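Hey all, sorry for the wall of text incoming. These are the two entities for the joint prediction.
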Amino acid sequence: MRIGVITFPGSLDDRDAQRAISLAGAEPVALWHGEHDLHGVDAIVLPGGFSYGDYLRCGAIASHSPIMAEVIDAANKGMPVLGICNGFQMLVEAHLLPGGLIRNDHGKFVRRDQVIRVENNTTAWTTDFTAGEEIVIPLKNGEGGYIASDETLKQLEGDGLVAFRYMGVNPNGSLNDIAGLTNPRGNVVGLMPHPEHAVEAGFGPNTEVRMRSGVDGLKFFTSVLEGVLS
Amino acid sequence: MAHVADTVENAIATPDKEQPYGALGLKPDEYAKIREILGRRPTSGELAMYSVMWSEHCSYKSSKIYLRQFGKKVSPKMKEHLMVGMGENAGVVDIGEGWAVTFKVESHNHPSYIEPFQGAATGVGGIVRDIISMGARPVAVMDQLRFGAVENPDTARVVHGVVGGISFYGNCLGLPNIGGETYFDAVYQGNPLVNALAVGVLRHEDLHLANASGVGNKVVLFGARTGGDGIGGASILASDSFDKTGPTKRPAVQVGDPFAEKVLIECCLELYKNELVEGIQDLGAAGISCATSELASNGDGGMFVELDNVLLRDPTLTAEEILMSESQERMMAVVKPEKLDAFMAVVNKWDVETSVLGEVTDTGRLVIHHGGEEIVNVDPRTVAIDGPVYERPVAYPSWIDELNTKTAAVLPRATDGAGLKEQFLELVASPNLADKSLITDQYDYYVMGNTALAFPDDAGMIRVDEESGLGFSIATDANGRYCQLDPYEGARLALAEAFRNVAVSGATPMAVTDCLNFGSPEDPEVMWQFSRAVEGLADACLEMEIPVTGGNVSFYNQTGSNAIHPTPVVGVLGVIDDVARRIPSAWQDEGQHIYLLGVTREELDGSAWANTIHQHLGGRPPQVDLGREMELASLLRGASLESLLGSAHDLSDGGLAQALAESVVRFGVGARVWLDDIIDRDGVDATNALFSESTGRVIVSVPREDDVKFQGLCDARKYPVLRIGVTTGVGSDATLEVQGQFTVSVTEIRERSAATLPKYFG
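and here's what came out:
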């Protein structure tokens, strides 16, 4: 199983996503934004960072990178695509997911160990979770406030497309505490928290048991691995 | 400044032309010296170059004679792991397994007062480029911040700007911010300190030094375009104290673009990896003037540059402005002609704009043409290396003896447990000891996935090798109040504390970087403080046998006659063979025994207690026995190797009281502690037991099953140790009980500690 991680100019968590894929037992494949080639991968991760300095709007320029034509095409054919933070912003800018992400309501960048609830465990990236499972995933962003029209929100909630919801603290003013979304088919998932930073004991978020021991993020990658293998 | 080119020919023809050297920060005798070196008056371009390169900031002209001690006071052991010492862009230390670490701390104080956001942001950017120029991948940053009093309305402006700037630039660069310091004191009101430290890692074989060798090799400028920002920043900003009546200096501060720098990092690393460059020099203070003259001085001695080839953001810039511009995110490379095409392919891949400026020559001269005419023709060493050296007057401060007699020992103390509790909570909530999450929550420490420890741990720790777990640990310290009382001891105390902070993380201290922040060198009493601090640090490094590998001096942190407290920030780097062995600074488990290592003395002078409870500064700083500190570090290492410790926390500001507060608040695990044994053995009272800042002390928590082993380790090494308590319950009813004195809920400590910064800066 080969999972591609696309590096854009300004991508920051691309190597971390590759490490997470390795730890889950799959083969990471480095993809370059300027190519029109997915190198035959089985799934794609759009990593976090500040692609193109987040100029214009976060993810806006990256969503027009050459490789995104292939990503959009593959996503529409059902290939699993995970957008993390800046990658989520790209998915929204590319209209693979609805709504928008704006500056945090408190105006500051925030880094915290965030509890989120898995609202939909039927997507390509969430099958290893139980429905309603609460997990701890690091969050770090300046523009993570999710917005959408009332109509879109109603549809997202009605169709079960809210994949993750912030628990305890809403860290950025996201409407309906939305932390992440899935498309109706369940192959395209985007979220602001960073699952690739909760994959290795000793370097993950704090949990109630131990400092930096959280590995809840690993299940994102094992989910897609099992899905593709079956 | 002339907009018609002032050529060398013209300078010879018009020897008496009046030149604005004073406005550029040069003194009359310095100007005369330049004329003597050249045998004529300088062209305006040459004057621009000399003025920035001979500024205090670039030339170290007031500090040089003292800094030489760091090179002289060395033992063979100090050189053992040192791959590159002082004088290069950053020092490089061998940490084993073929890995090396390069690190350095630098100041960006003056720009950060004028324009806090951009000043702090470009401070991060500048130090990171130093790291890249050694051939290393930057892997971590930390910042050492000193602000004015919390209640002064201007402090919020500076805090928000500086923290926002660091957060913006560092996060966008994808570098984990793993630690640092934040202090508030009215002495920094008009002169905040913004020091930035960066660490990089490299394989031994990837080490590069920036020099222009190989006649015919191309000199290439790449990265951001050159604009009008920061012109004269180096000389005018860093060499002048602030004066309220002066004109605004805002345009002299640079503007940062972290995206451009992130791309530049990846581009440089690919250039190194493909062996396409002989060397890369970063452009920081003094821009092209500095890069060309330093590259040429460190290489074959000659360089020819066509200034018209510099890509400009603003086409109206004059030659002098191009030479002085401090536009950020630029690098200069030396490239063999046959590798130029491959070089261009890499920079084009990363969309980095690039132009070939000239080439290395063997003339011994740095020659710069503009508009087809020769506007600079100098011996580059006279610009970059052989600048002026001053032996400034030094005077023993008239006020210091009186200050040293005003001991805090005579100040009123709490008479009962209720009084101690009140003081304990007052200290916990004091701005310097309070929870700093408001600041640190804005920094990403997750990126890169190798952060093993970060604030609020005593040291930051990064894994270098993902297979073996090899890593480094780093901590910085400087107590300006101690240094005000005694700069020699203060500098030694700063080293001791940083050393101890690295040791409690489980690592072995190996090397030092420093950023020496002082007032005006033209004030003989400040110069005395500086000379004593440097001597103290150099002596202490020799005694502890760890080398200073590089750093920075920042003078003129002074408004009128009010200088800051001497603030020599000392950073210590340690190595750990496996970061899995790291020791957190707070306990995580119930039922562990709490031990205090070290002896408590009656030492309240200069303490946080004296400051917070009595607004007092006087007396003598705590004693420090560096041999003892080394024994302590070795003991902690031994305990870490046997995995005997649940946690270890250094005792410093606020003494045992603050260490206990931080240990219970972090993971919400309470403790029951008794002071009686400390009081009996050390002959101190409860106030000293809680608030004394005696050195050489650490509290550790030990699982019961390892109790015997741990005690045996301490006995064998004859390090004083007392069992002072036990960790207790977790959860909402967890408490810190100081037996016979007071009990306070962990929730109350947390709330008091967390409320302070939001109150002023929320």
